[in-house]
């Protein structure tokens, strides 16, 4: 049985920990590998390696750091199919979606290739007589990333390439549920020319995370995962005076106006709601139908019911299983709560299975209508292939529902009216808005800007905000004396 290694100071090595966590194939529940719950001293070694490497890595010219990213981008593209195969086998994602997981990460590496331009400071000449002020952007030191199971390529790649291109070094603690994908990313990073200690990977759960959050030599923490853990990480990291950005759970709404194109709405909402088995933080899990558009719900439900889950290498499969038995148990319980609380279940996937893979964590597509905001299926993040449909009479009512929701990751509106779209984009309290685009994940030259309980912190992932997150600004005021400098001491705060 394959034992997942640690990656410390340029070496892939077995952990000495006797505590091993099984990694399973979610389609069959078979154990495919074991990942160690690393020892405290191994986490310390990873931070120490990163701290040591920082001294030399920060002095490597930014152009050379960018070239490592250029090589990394080319290698990731070359190996995209291999990454997607490893990723699909341990997450159950269908192959094309696994390719997308890798690709959306590669795009962030492309942004990291632009590090020189992004790290330019500012200059003002002659702020006072003979005095110039300029700023430079410098790295922080050792940065830590804690990542979730649902995008094991994309989310680590949201973090370490940019942090490292900015001159930092990195310790990654990936999800214990699919750790083989990030290990492959590390292997390819070595091939790209990353020196030892620049990227390190340890495995484990809460204890290892807490150790990193308390570690004196860690400067900044990036986290992506669920709300309770995100709050814990943000509180602990900031209480230890570290910079932190924590991306958390979501409940993303789409608003369907009656003037929208029905076919466009249906074609888009099928994939946006049940794609990746709903295990996307930007999945649409609530659709609010305004006025007459509620007549389309049955047709949408039929289109969603036609999507068949299956194995990752089944070309007919629309999506794969849930990640674990406990994830399935939670989603089934929520579906049952929806029925018990009075929602109408138009499509029920709770009994779905794939022949020959009955032990897998399958849930078929599920659609509820007559959902109200006091129901658990509305209030909780389901993270399964379940769409909740609500009906209202006006855009104002729809906006009030979306704005009262505690999450604010993504939302969309389908409409033919520029005025309705403009009102929605302006008044909605959600950080990423799609107009006739169901899942508005920004490309990496923008930033991933969730709001409210979907994000704790201020500077967001990738884009210019991530460069600010992973760097410090130093401002220099300089004078090179000439004859004109006034004689005698200056006892005021004025420059002269
Ligand atoms: P999770 O919170 O269970 O785990 C995330 C990471 O935290 C993992 O590395 C895990 O090992 C670690 N962890 C788990 N429990 C911990 C604890 N008590 N203390 C410290 N660390 C702990 O999340 P998950 O189930 O892997 O991922 C799914 C969640 O992630 C969903 O809520 C989803 O919405 C969210 N997510 C959010 C975004 C976003 O950008 N907002 C993106 C992807 C996923």
From TrEMBL:
Identify the domain of life.
Bacteria
Q: Name one GO molecular function term.
A: methylmalonate-semialdehyde dehydrogenase (acylating, NAD) activity
Which EC number applies? 1.2.1.27
Q: Is Oxidoreductase tagged as a keyword?
A: yes
InterPro entries, sorted: Ald_DH/histidinol_DH (IPR016161), Ald_DH_C (IPR016163), Ald_DH_CS_CYS (IPR016160), Ald_DH_N (IPR016162), Aldehyde_DH_dom (IPR015590), MeMal-semiAld_DH (IPR010061)
Please name one Pfam family that this protein belongs to: Aldedh
**GO biological process entries:** L-valine catabolic process; thymine catabolic process
Keywords from UniProt, A to Z, are: NAD, Oxidoreductase
Q: Which PROSITE patterns match?
A: ALDEHYDE_DEHYDR_CYS
Residue stretches making up the Aldehyde dehydrogenase domain: 14-476
**Family, similarity comment:** Belongs to the aldehyde dehydrogenase family.
Protein name (database record): methylmalonate-semialdehyde dehydrogenase (CoA acylating)
Species for this entry: Alteromonas lipolytica
């Amino acid at each position: 049985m394959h034992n997942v290694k640690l990656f410390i100071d340029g070496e892939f090595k077995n952990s000495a920990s006797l505590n091993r966590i099984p990694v399973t194939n979610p389609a069959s529940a078979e154990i495919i590998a074991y990942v160690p719950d690393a020892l405290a001293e191994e986490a310390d070694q990873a931070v120490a390696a990163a701290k040591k490497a920082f001294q030399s890595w920060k002095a490597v010219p930014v152009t050379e750091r960018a070239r490592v990213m250029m090589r990394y981008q080319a290698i990731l593209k070359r190996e995209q199919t291999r990454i997607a195969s490893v990723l699909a086998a341990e997450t159950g994602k269908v192959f094309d979606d696994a390719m997308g997981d890798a690709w959306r990460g590669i795009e962030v590496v492309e942004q990291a290739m632009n590090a020189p331009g992004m790290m330019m400071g500012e200059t003002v000449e002659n702020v006072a007589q003979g005095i110039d002020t300029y700023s430079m952007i410098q790295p922080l030191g050792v940065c830590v990333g804690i990542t979730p199971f649902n995008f094991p390529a994309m989310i680590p790649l949201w973090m370490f390439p940019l942090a490292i291109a900015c001159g930092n070094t990195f310790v990654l603690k990936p999800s214990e549920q699919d750790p083989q994908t990030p290990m492959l990313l590390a292997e390819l990073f070595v091939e790209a020319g990353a020196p030892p200690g620049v990227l390190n990977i340890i495995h484990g759960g809460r204890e290892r995370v807490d150790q990193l959050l308390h570690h004196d030599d860690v400067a900044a923490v990036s986290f992506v995962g669920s709300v309770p853990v995100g709050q814990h990480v943000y509180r602990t990291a900031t209480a230890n005076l570290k910079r932190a950005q924590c991306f958390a759970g979501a409940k993303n709404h789409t608003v369907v106006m009656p003037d929208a194109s029905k076919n466009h709405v249906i074609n888009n909402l099928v994939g946006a709601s049940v794609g990746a088995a709903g295990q996307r933080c930007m999945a649409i899990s609530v659709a609010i139908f305004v006025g007459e558009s509620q007549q389309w719900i049955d047709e949408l439900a039929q289109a969603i019911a036609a999507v068949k889950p299956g194995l990752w290498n089944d070309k007919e499969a629309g999506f794969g299983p849930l990640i674990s038995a406990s994830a399935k148990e939670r989603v089934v319980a929520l579906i049952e709560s929806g029925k018990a609380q009075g929602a109408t279940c138009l499509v029920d996937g709770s009994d779905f299975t794939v022949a020959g893979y009955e032990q897998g964590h399958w849930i078929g597509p599920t659609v509820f209508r007559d959902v109200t905001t006091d129901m658990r299926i509305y209030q909780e993040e389901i993270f399964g292939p379940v769409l909740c449909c609500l009906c209202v009479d006006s855009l104002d009512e729809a906006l009030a529902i979306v704005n009262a929701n505690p999450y604010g990751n993504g939302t969309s509106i389908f409409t033919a009216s520029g005025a309705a779209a403009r009102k929605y984009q302006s008044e909605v309290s959600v950080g990423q808005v799609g107009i006739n685009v169901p899942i508005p994940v920004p490309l990496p030259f923008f930033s991933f800007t969730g709001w409210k309980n979907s994000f704790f912190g201020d500077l967001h992932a990738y884009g210019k905000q991530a460069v600010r997150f992973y760097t410090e600004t130093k401002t220099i005021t300089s004078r090179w004396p000439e004859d004109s400098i006034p004689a005698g001491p200056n006892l005021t705060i004025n420059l002269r």
